[in-house]
Amino acid sequence: MDLIESHAARLPVIDDRWAPRPHEEGELVRGLLDGKVAGPITSHPMGNVRRHIQLLFEGDPDKQFGMSGLAGAMDPWKVLGLVGEAGGFEPDVNVHHGPVPIDPLAVLGACEQIGDRLAFACRRGERMILATGHPVGLMLLYGEVGRQLVERGVEFVHPYEGVSWKDKGRHHKWEIRYLYNVALLTDRAGAKHTHSGEPMRRMLDEARPDLVFADHGFAGAAIEAGIDTLSIADVNDPALLVAKALGRTDGVIVMDDNVQPDAYWPCFQAIVSRLRKPDGRGRGRSGRWHRAAASTPRRL
């Protein structure tokens, strides 16, 4: 079995939760809480979040996600404030341990903002790249959103597919492969989790899309290259939020980014609720997408 076929076989079967339809907000909130995408206790405790912020501040290459100018750009406490604002919680300067919550309403609001930008991409017939450093957790979300975008006129490009390269000091080669139009990093034996910006840098050397929707270094390298980028970040990966605060990107969804793949169906529903139907009817903003209007999460 081919590597990509094998990886696809590991993923849950798509069920009717992934069929676009109207949902009550409470149902989506319950879905996020049940799937642990958001809630009072998520995967990364405060000690881990603060440690990663400090490493970003000190210039640890793994925490920069392929971007320059982030190390030392903001005081760690201010960065924690960005995480809290995006995640919907109020950080306490005296709290260094314990759980980190994520407000499900903040997740849904950010997903709707992403959906507004993607609706604009559909209207313009933009060329896009989807890519993930979490090839299991986030695969269904990207893939199913991508399926809806194709029906509405977006063109996905697959640069650098199947081209091998070798990093200094590594004994194996890397390759970029695509599943459901989503770019993954592989070691030619399996799909790999990565923070590196190198895969996206190689992809952008071959093709320059209008828009990227990605995470980790795939998103960071696109931001570094000046590509309009939408992204997903966990609470312990602050680089994308710092880039947003510096005015280098818009549209970052902060949530637990590596739970079960089928747990992200509420995010899918919130995103596609902002798209027009393929026949041109339904929701979706007309005219130009306005960054300023999309920068403030919805609060109910």
In summary, what is this structure?
38% of the residues lie in helices and 12% in strands.
Query: How would you describe the shape?
Result: globular
List the total number of helices: 11
User: Cα distance, first to last residue?
Assistant: 48 Å
Q: State the low-pLDDT regions, or none.
A: 284-300
Residue-averaged pLDDT: 92
Write down how many β-strands occur, each being a DSSP E stretch of 2 or more residues. 9
Radius of gyration: 18 Å
Q: Helicity range of the residues? A: 25-40%
Strand content: 5-15%
SSE order in H/E notation? HHHHHHEHEEEEEHEHEHEH
Indicate how many domains the architecture comprises.
1
Helix and strand composition category: alpha/beta
Tell me the major beta sheet: 9 strands, mixed
Write up what this structure looks like.
- It is a single chain.
- The protein has one domain.
- It has 300 residues and is α/β, with parallel strands linked by helices.
- The protein has helices at 3-10, 25-34, 46-58, 61-64, 76-87, 104-124, 139-151, 198-206, 216-224, 239-245, 265-272, and strands at 127-131, 155-156, 164-165, 174-179, 182-186, 191-192, 211-215, 228-233, 252-254.
- The radius of gyration is 18 Å and the shape is globular.
- Strands 1, 2, 3, 4, 5, 6, 7, 8 and 9 form a nine-stranded mixed beta sheet that branches.
- Helix content is 38%, strand content 12%.
